[in-house]
Specification:
Three copies of one chain form a homotrimer.
Chain A (H helix, E strand, L loop, with lengths): L5 H19 L3 H5 L2 E8 L7 E2 L1 H18 L1 E14 L5 E14 L5 E15 L2 E10 L3
Parallel strand pairs in A: 1-6
Antiparallel strand pairs in A: 1-2, 3-4, 4-5, 5-6
Pfam families (chains A, B, C): SnoaL_4
Organism (chains A, B, C): Amycolatopsis dendrobii
Protein name (chains A, B, C): Nuclear transport factor 2 family protein
Amino acid sequence: MSEVPVEDVLAVHQLYGRQSHAIDSGQAARWAATFTPDGEFVSPSYPEPEAGTAALTAFAERFHAGCVESGERLRHVVSTVEVRSGQSEDTLRALAYLQIVGTPEGGAPRLHRLTVLDDELVRTAEGWRVRRRTVHREP
Amino acid sequence: MSEVPVEDVLAVHQLYGRQSHAIDSGQAARWAATFTPDGEFVSPSYPEPEAGTAALTAFAERFHAGCVESGERLRHVVSTVEVRSGQSEDTLRALAYLQIVGTPEGGAPRLHRLTVLDDELVRTAEGWRVRRRTVHREP
Amino acid sequence: MSEVPVEDVLAVHQLYGRQSHAIDSGQAARWAATFTPDGEFVSPSYPEPEAGTAALTAFAERFHAGCVESGERLRHVVSTVEVRSGQSEDTLRALAYLQIVGTPEGGAPRLHRLTVLDDELVRTAEGWRVRRRTVHREP
C-alpha cells in the first residue's frame, strides 16, 4: 500500500475540520467551497444527491435554517479519518466517521446518527477538494 | 487563505490530545502547562474565567476531585479540529468540538454536553500553547 | 519532552483510522495486520488477552459476526489521539479515546462505552504497528 504524503493526509484533516465548522455555523458558501465546482454529495438521509456549488450552498443553507427554526443546534462531529491513495497522484480516498449531535435549547445533547463518510478527493489549485462524498449508514 | 504549516497543525492536535489525557487522569499541572503562564479559560459552564497557571491548575484539580467524589468518570473527547492562521506567524486560531462523556461506576456512558473550543494559540519556546480558550455552547 | 516527528504522529493517526474502518467493515485480516505478528490486545471487556495474528484475526471475525447476528452495527470511533515518545527511537506510546457506538437496524444510535486505548507501538519495515494495546475503562 503506497504511503500518502504527510501534507496530503493533514490537508484532508484540515478540510474536514473546515467543513464541519462552516456548515454548523451557517457559512454555507464556505462549506460548498470544500467541494469541487461539480462536487457531489450523496446521502441516504436526503432524497437525492446534490451536485455543484449552487446546489451544495443551498443544501447547507437549508441545513442551517432548519437548525435555527427547530431551536436545536446540530453539530457534525468528524473523527477516525483514514486517508488512502487514490487512482492517481491527484486523487485520494478518505473514510471518516460522522456523528450528528443535536442539542436543543436548554436541553441535553443527543446523538442523532452515526454515518460513514466515503470521499473521493481531487487535488486542485486551491488544495484538496471533495469531488464526490458518499454517506453510508452501512458500509 | 494562507496554509498553516504541517508541523503547526499537528502540534495543535498533539496539544489537544495531551490536554484531555492530562485533565482526565488528574494531572492538573500537566494540563495547566498547555496554556501560557497568563493563559485564560473562558467557559459558560463555569461562573467566571480562569487565568494564569495557578488558577488553571486549581481548576483542573477541582475537576478531577469532582469526578472522584461523584464516582463518575468524565472524559474530554476532542475532535473535528481546524487550525487557522493567526494574526501573526506566532499565533494560530483553532476550533474543535469537545464532547464531555461521563461514565458512572458500573453504569452506561452519557454525553453530557457538546461544546466548541475556540482557541488563540501562541508559539513559545516550549511549543504552541493556548493563550485564550473560549468555550462556546453556541458559536 | 522530546518531540515526536510529524511523520510518526500522522502514521499513528492513519493506523487508527485504518483499524476502525477495517474491523467495522469485517476486514479481520486487515485489522490484525495493524498489530505486530506477536501483537497483544488486552481489554477488560473480554475475558482474556488476544495475542498473535491468528488470534487477533479470529477476534475481529467474531466481533463482526456478532454484529451481523445481532443486527446492530457497531463502530469504533477513535479520537483525542496523543502520541508520545517511546523508550527508543523505534517505539512510541499512544493514547486515544474510543467510543463504541451501536446502531440497531432502523433504530437510534447508542453509545455503548468509552474506553482509553493505551498502545505501545513499534516501527517495522511496513510502518508503525501495535505491539501491545491495553484498553482501560479507568486509567
